[in-house]
Amino acid sequence: MPNFKYLTVALFAIIIAGCAGQAARQSDNAQIADAEARLRAGDYLGASQIYQNLEVNSDAPEYYRMMVAYVSLRSGNTREAQALLAQVLPDKLGSDEQAFYQVLRSWADLNQGKAKDAMARLNTFNADQLAPSNRRIYYKLRASAYNQLGNMLDSARERLNYAALIRNPDEARKNNEAIFETLDRVPVATLKDLVLQEKTGDLVGWMDLVLLTHAPENQRYNYLQTWLQRYPGHPATGEFIDSLKIKPGSGGKTQPAQQPPAATGAVSPAPNGNVIGVLLPLSGPYASLAQAVKDGIEAAHNADTSSPKPRLEYVDTQNADVAALYRKLVSLGARAVIGPLTKEELGVLSKSGNLSVTALGLNQTQDVNAEKIYQFGLIPEQDLEQSAASAWADGFQSALVLAPSSAFGTRMSGYFTDYWKGLGGKVLTVKTYNPGASEYTRPVGELLSAASQAAGRAFVFLIADARDARLIKPQIDAQQTAPLPVFAMSRVYDGHADAAMQNKDLSGITFCDIPWLLNDKASDPLSLTSLHTLADKTSESDLRLIAMGIDAYKLLPQLDILRSGSPYSGYTGRLSLQPGNRIRRQLDCAMLDGGTLRLRGPAPNVQPATGGGTIASR
Fold first, then answer.
1. Where do the DSSP E strands lie in 492-555?
2. Which CATH number is associated with domain 9-149?
3. Which residues form the signal peptide (predicted)?
């Protein structure tokens, strides 16, 4: 999928030319130009020093203090920017500068995951009050805020407003991709209703185009011809439509495709054949996990319409030399290898040297330092982080943590504590329970007794599987006059959206999970519904590994795109490449409401900033 990081520091690489308004004096122009040049070069310290000097020596100190805050935001130091903005006297600024001041405050709010506060500020003025060069930032901020709030339709509307201001063809292409991706997060049934309500305009054309890609494969080309007649001159016509690759007699792709540039570490062509090797522990203690991954790989391979389709070659890594097996697969003509699965095997392969074709490892470890190895796994820390980020985005500050008395519980509760405190939050207490018990009154009571210490809004962060959560959540509700909100890791959900009676005991829990489980698309041959036979024979604890197997197979031709900075929308999340060839998953979030699954949208990505504060994206 195209690059669509809804809000990052890099998003604001637009330099503020002409935003000084009446506050910047003619004599300051040379220094302003120098500061802007330094910003373009990434010299944030140099730009900040220039603005600090102007703050002291010019007749517009409030404006230049605001610009120092702007540089702090550009450099990722949200906390420092907030302190500076709090010192600015807005009534000393010109009218367009006052609006820009609110833009910066909103930006800082979004970097802390406070989308509601950001939107409230952005609603105090309109784009016409901003200098023309700053209106693009305004619309991007609004799009990001709506996205964090789970309002995909209005996020797309703001993207359309932004589109009217774009002059750069590459930026227009990226914005088109962002609009499509945003609307593709809206459930199909909702989109169909919205198309009937909107009736005309570019937005309804985009919605209709998204719906087209969810139609049965053998109907998409004909639907596209109807779409082209219905929406002549639509901004998607041309390059974007071509990228969907919908051809006569072909279903086309459901996501825009890009031509990958040449890159170091790219998937190597097979000199001896069209083979994908797979390294999995098909026997031994990890056999059930390996089988679920294999089922996903096989399902994706069966659905692959490419010609010639690669042949899959499996080898069992149990009690074997994984490096020797890798070399064997290469000798058989493997152009890429999926696996190995365990951290230990991944470390061994990394240290073996002389890796001639790409290996997509199915785990992540610090021991990997090899250019040809990519690390892709269902890492629980990513799951925890995004559920916690959802709580932070909702404005909660104080956490009460309940975890199982196990090594996993200790690891996760420790990770949560470090992450939450890094954001600036407070962990009031961490309590444990015996997993698999029949009664949880005592640990829940001990947990809730700490709620009175809360500074700001408090919530419970629950680390539990579905079985334990169904007993714990009613206890949390029963022991509080006004039950505390509960956020949890994805293990709380067993993937059965239709099990309303069972899920009723989980009502009110917010969690983040893979799209394959939350956003089922029956028309997709790889959806949970379509693969129900596989899912039914797979244990709940291994279910998500089917989706990982699907993504592992489909990711191989997308690795160059990931290296170029563009994410890929997979079945395990929106996938992007991080340093060390680590693949990060952005999940979807949902709440169980009376047993019914209510989607909230993509998980926010809220990270502690290096210089203090937080950096948020979506």
1. 509-513
2. 1.25.40.10
3. 1-23
